[in-house]
Amino acid sequence: MSDEFICETIEVRTFIGQVKAILSGDGSVAEKLTAIRPHFSQMIEDPTWLPDEFRRTPEVGGMGAGIANWLLYRDTNATLSLSALVLPPGAVTPVHDHLAWGLVGLYVGEQDEEVFEPVTPIESDDEHANLKMVTKNHLKVGSFYELIPPSGDIHRVVTTSEEPSISLHLLTNDVGCVLRHRFVLETGEVAPFRSGYTNIECDAEGS
Hints:
Largest sheet: 6 strands, antiparallel
Shape: globular
Strand order of the largest sheet: 1-2-3-10-5-8
Order of helices and strands: EHHEEEEEEEEEEE
Number of helices: 2
Distance between the termini: 13 Å
Oligomer: single chain
Number of strands: 12
């Protein structure tokens, strides 16, 4: 099997080639993220390469009503993916984690991001967790941040612009198909969560 380029623009193919070259080299996660940052920055600051078909919002989606999660690329081992999350104005994602390191950046619109941390460590089989908000960020086009779990891995975002917001997610898993976690702040409930992709079906085991 070959890697899946659902968005086959030359910019995506070039970017993924640069990322895979960095990932195949030596160095820590932090060092690899530092090397990837300028290439990712170039992608989120170029408004022209993402086709219109990956900017649309559906009526329903795994992240909530009207929220689209478009898979743009993933590798055959489910160890790297690039996706575009499209939220209409005022839409809010559930509080969720990612379970992978990588970069997330704002490509279109504006968002508020709330970052949470558990009061006590969360075990894989926990059904409840008490979270506290540790950071609130306002993101504009070109803003991006690193994810290195567990730091900063639990958050929710809301579109604050009058146009839909689009965030790009470069993560070291098949984020739409892996089983991760949704958190309910009011009750402390932790539930299994698979966001899915708007354009690609996940198989029964995940990706």
